[in-house]
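Repro case for the chain-ordering regression, as requested:
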Amino acid sequence: MKAFAELLDRLVLTPQRNAKIRLLVDYFHSAPDPSRGYALAAIAGTLSLNTVKPALIRDLLLERMDGVLFQYSYDYVGDLAETVSLAWEPPAEVAPEDIPLGEVVERLQKAGRSEVRSLVREMLDRLDTSGRFALLKLATGGLRIGVSARLAKQALAEMGSREVTEIETLWHGLEPPYRPLFLWLTGEGEMPLLKTPAIFHSVMLATAVGEGELDGLDPSDYAAEWKWDGIRVQLANVGGVRRLYSRSGDEISSAFPEIIEVAGIDGVIDGELLVGGTMRSNRATGTFADLQQRLNRKTVSRKLLDDYPAFIRAYDVLFSGERDIRPEPFHVRRGALSALIEAASPQHFDLSPLVPFSNWKELDELRAKPPDPVIEGVMLKRLDSPYLAGRSKGPWFKWKRAPFNIDAVLMYAQRGHGKRSSYYSDFTFGVWTEGEDGTSLVPVGKAYFGFTDAELEILDRFVRDNTVERFGPVRAVRAEPDKGFVVEVAFEGLNRSTRHKSGVAMRFPRIARLRPDKLPRDADRLETLQAMIGPPT
Amino acid sequence: MKPDALLYPAPKGLYCERGDFYIDPVQPVERALITHGHSDHARAGHGHVLATRETLDIMRLRYGEEFCGGSQIARFGETIAIGDVRVRFHPAGHVLGSAQIAVEANGTRIVVSGDYKRRPDPTCPPFEPVACDVFITEATFGLPVFHHPDDKGEVARLLLSLRQFPERAHVVGAYALGKAQRLIALIRQQGYTEPIHIHGALAKLCEYYQSQGIELGDIRPATLGPENRQDLAGSIVVGPPAAFAERWSRRFADPLAIFASGWMLIRQRAKQRGVELPLVISDHCDWAELTATIKEIAPSELWVTHGREEALVRWCQLQGIPARPLHLVGYEDEGE
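-- result from build under test --
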């Protein structure tokens, strides 16, 4: 438990992705089975435990501690698990000892409802502070350490010098504590054989079209499709098991029961998950903001199902029945897909339409003026390309619509993390709006990338030399009509927002250019942004 | 006599009317007794200062020769009469030169402990419990959540990180007086002999500690001017806590932010400051040590100066020890 607790402590405070991976790899190499497997499960969100209610751990502490002192402590620390782990005083006669994570998990899994209380108490007494914290986070089911399942898989790949796609392919056929997986990665065992046919298959990814890149390519070698603004999913119905996965292989079946219910397509298909109506039902496709209502939920209410019905706009097929057709060329797979979709529920499936074009210029014009607001560009797929896991350059391209751009004024800055901890690198910017007290700036977004290192130096110097107020780690900078800093902000889209004072929220904003040539008074106005969203729907 | 008649809080600090002196006053006064050299306790500009030799040296280093009108050295255990009040200095174990001050008149003794700790510290003599009627304690870490871990384990985590991330400069924030030197001494105790690089703000104090016979090993300036840039990958660099937020830290190889402080026990504190590797090393008592000290000294009354006094006063209530907060202003809540 000590090693796992130490790992959690480090991961929470380590901002850099590569440093997180190194910490994970070091841990996976040094920790024994089954502890490392349970650690992996806890981090990747595949560990099932009878969770303990926060009230129970509070009660356990109050068995030994004055309620007033507890309240002072909790108010100060702000996190219950942390308060309990810090304030817990084991009885003098209990010698501290490390309990392996594997034992902790197995005992928690076995314990009946009535035994949990005394089990947690006993383990709290034996563990040290960090160990207690890790135990309570595990037991209450909220690790929240800033590591995604994807990053954990990346660490596994690194550990065994494998491709992450190999890990993703195996992932759903394995379960905690993942002993065969670790044996394979450390070279002590064979690649695990899956009992059920591989359920998730790493998806094929496109590369962005670079400047002038299409010039050397023949348009007749490629098919074009619209790039819809939803989320990439894979739907599998194999051997009677139906599963819906995100593009990184996270299972999201329970959030979309209506799709699972009608997922009778025999095989594995690839497509975009959207809300609203399919083309076959002749209803409009919902925006990404609508789709967001359905994302990151474990369960879904009747109302959400009615208001934001989900469907899949299919664009590829990996398995037809049990047959792996990934080696077949795109146009053959597309033919097979078309037949499958034809037979599927028209409210829940449609086929991503092809966009006819004869040359790149024509396609470029279509890309700039798509027929539907939920389209964010076009996809190009080589007609003869097999379905390849991962991102290889050439067979598939994504060609996005140009981003939106506005000029905004820097308002606040905050120091970054890690490499950037001595730089003011997180910026809040605003545009002008007319309010009761005349014209003022209203914040419209936050960005912490897009600039070069040299530009960051300039921004940082501006912040340090023009700070007008400090709020903890945040600095307000000078932002007046004639004194201030203008930046060109690029973003992918705008949503209405009730959470932001400005009423708008940007998608994927970044600082595209510094505009020292402009005065803040020349920056854009809120009305310009509102016009980009269009009238309320 | 009643303790409140001997010593009471006044706007400039804790005041003894019978001897006409203040202890750790926050504004310039005619006569000051100083417990230790931290700047919120030891300020410049007093008429006359009574303190340990080391504390006077530290004040001189920080404020210059003219830091006060006149000074007198207090030796540990020696009784000094000021009018009909007798005062005596005892080690507090906080930083080099730190003292508790016992103030006694008409059979009543009050001990002003200043800041103190109970753990062994290679840079100063240990805290000495002194029997008294009133014990005046700080409560910087006066909450039951503060249980500072063993120093050795904390330093071991630093040394482990050096092995794990040899391409990064390990920049440690540590308070310039006391913490920095203790940390370096602790690192040396674990057998680390590589040069340790320090920020300019630490140079005079480290040199002073060394002149007092405290082993800090091979210490070098972290910065040698623009023509001699060094990125110090895989090295330890120690600077004042604010330094790693400053441009100063940019010259180092992918600096890994470390902070040595008792506050680092609280994860959110570490996260807010952008600390990647928190080292829980404190020059104050944790909760267990505070409460054990009070039980050991067993004063008839406890006064609490600064920190989280409400929790400590509550604990005293539960123990049946009369206790009250003094509400002194001017001491840094942050303590370290």
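Ordering looks correct now. Chain A has a mean pLDDT of 90.
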